[in-house]
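Quick log. Single chain, no ligands specified.
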Amino acid sequence: MSMRRSRAPSNSSGSPSPRIPPVPRRDRSHRHSEDEYTSPRKHRRRSRNFHHRGYDTGREKSNKVDLLFCVFHGAPSHRWRTAPFTFDRRRIDDRELWEDIQRVYQDELQGMWRRILGFKKLKQVIPIEYTSNGVPIPKDAKNNPNNHSFMHAVHHPDHIRPDHEWVDWFIQFKDDDRGKTVGLEFAEGLWAEKLAIIAIVITIAIIVVSIVWVVEGGDLQTVFTVMSFVLTGAAAEVALVALYFQVTQSN
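-> predicted structure:
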């Protein structure tokens, strides 16, 4: 578009009039570059491109449910042992959820050697929340499952149907956290059955050894005296182990 230059009015005195400079033209390429960043339509188009390219958005983050599991170890450490746990609500069902929870408890909280050589076992699963100091406290709610449901799920995840009832409960449990960290506490107690089995095995072994000793020609009175001492010592050791774990559990 051509622009007309304005003429100055004629001067009656005949002196030359000052020259008026032309109006500068605006660079269209510069204006186009500015509009590219300031246009809301193009800005929305760029945002949609980011979403389709797989960038993490708030909705994708909300599908992750973060929990913190813990177990209390008695003497001599007297400390909480924790393990983080995260699952995706879209890609897991109840059976897979509890299989993962069982694996985290056995591998990270309990440990192989404590499970084999220890005399404690899982007694209770408690929904908890953590204070500002990181101390777990029970989180009571009306819709919390009872302990039998938790124990059945953690011990027999293969018996759970692949539904989403437990998944929905954990989602609601997390949504009601009021900004606090929530999770599960695995409370352990004395494994009395294991102690009883060990005591029975020791008793049977002593009786078998005594019979074989007598059959091989050993003196009955000597065999009876020796094996009585051995049986008394074994019973005392089992009792001391049970007393130790009972005391550490109460403390």
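The chain has a mean pLDDT of 77.
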